[in-house]
Specification:
Number of domains: 2
Structural class: alpha/beta
Strand content: 5-15%
Shape: elongated
CATH topology of the largest domain: Spore Coat Polysaccharide Biosynthesis Protein SpsA, Chain A
Bound molecules: uridine-5'-diphosphate, magnesium ion
Radius of gyration: 25 Å
Distance between the termini: 52 Å
């Protein structure tokens, strides 16, 4: 191993939302893994575990602050309110830009096998800039969760959003990728669909998914469907293409219908045509409404993108923020927040 490799700084990015039951169980596991990597000389002692408190309403931030005071390897940032898992991971990643060589994002609930990090780091040394953690099997998930998740990936891929199958947000990303990723300014975030777009050498690491150590999932069916929908409409224009296709077929059918109406009226059998007219009107009304609805989703997203709101706002840090230039770049200074 070369000297350069020993100096690789790793930040493990851990989003936490109301995890007071989970953190006391898992923080030790994260530290054990990091200590192992440091002792093997794979990452430097300057490596850190960054907890991102996503506006928790429980003791989570207090726990993070306590941990940061206990061990220099723990650091934390806190968002000014709950913004969702994707934005919490983003806040952590952007915090790490230019302070690290590599980052690994992982959930805090111990479901993703923490010991897979070593293999991820090894893959980085083999020349990969992104390493996707992929679940081997879903036996520990409930029947319902397993099948909704399966549907989720199927739906995304069918709709034209490229995602790595069974990869959630357990992922190693190099600083080089992160710097490029900074230029993806979208507000509707779907990280696992965006990183494949950044490119560079990538590979996968397989791991077994465990059960949540404590607490409950924050991803019920409704949120999962929301995420799938965000994934599709943020990454793909396939729904619009499909509407165009359906529109063409319906128009053709309508055209044939008009010819039929003209012929019938010439033949003098118009009065009895009321039911068929109603059917056509209702059918077209339905299709149009559906189409407008989906197009409306895109318009809504354009609206949000044009606002260019800050995507995250960090209200506190357990350490001194030296490179404040990044805070300015993302437009998230606390004064602006207070004004609202
Ligand atoms: N999380 C977050 N903000 C949220 C919801 C969740 O930061 O609004 C974090 C949560 O603390 C966990 C990770 O995102 O570390 C994944 O959430 P969860 O385990 O509830 O989802 P699941 O594993 O069931 O899909
Ligand atoms: Mg989980």
């Amino acid at each position: 191993m070369t000297v350069k490799e020993k100096n690789v700084i790793l930040w493990v990015i851990v989003p936490c939302y109301n995890e007071e039951k989970v953190l006391p169980e898992t923080y030790g596991l994260f530290l054990d893994e990091l200590t192992l990597l440091i002792s093997k000389g794979k990452v430097s002692d300057e490596s850190r575990i960054l907890f991102v408190n996503d506006g928790s309403s429980d003791e989570t931030w207090e726990i993070i602050k306590r941990l940061s005071a206990q061990d220099k390897h723990f650091i934390g940032i806190s968002q000014s309110r709950n913004r969702g898992h994707q934005n919490a991971v983003l806040a952590g990643l952007m915090e790490a830009v230019d302070r690290t060589d590599i980052t690994i994002s992982i959930d805090c609930d111990g479901q993703d096998d923490i010991s897979a990090m070593e293999e991820m780091v090894d893959k980085y040394y083999e020349g990969n800039e992104i390493v996707y953690g992929v679940r081997n099997k879903r036996e520990t998930d409930s029947f319902f969760k397993r099948n909704t998740a399966r549907f989720f990936y199927w739906f995304l891929n069918k709709m034209g959003a490229e995602v790595v199958y069974d990869h959630a947000d357990y992922r190693l990303v190099s600083n080089r990728v992160l710097k490029e990723f900074e230029n993806y300014k979208e507000v509707n975030l779907f990280l696992r669909g965006l990183f494949p777009l950044v490119g560079f050498n990538s590979t996968k690491v397989y791991y077994d998914r465990n059960e949540r150590i404590a607490g409950e999932s924050h991803y019920p069916l409704k949120k999962m469907m929301g995420l799938a929908f965000d994934g599709v409409t943020s990454l793909s224009v396939k729904p619009i293409q499909m509407i165009t296709g359906i529109g063409a077929i319906v128009s053709l059918a309508g055209f044939i219908g008009i010819i039929w109406v003209i012929i019938s009226s010439i033949a003098g059998t118009v009065v009895s045509g009321w039911p068929s007219t109603m059917c056509i009107v209702l059918f077209l009304g339905g299709v149009q409404l559906l189409s407008i609805g989906i197009i409306g989703q895109y318009v809504g997203k354009i609206y949000l993108e044009t606002k260019q709101r800050p995507r995250y706002i960090i209200s506190e840090r357990t350490y001194e923020n030296k490179g404040s230039s990044r805070t300015d770049k993302s437009g998230c200074n606390e004064k602006a927040d207070n004004k609202e």
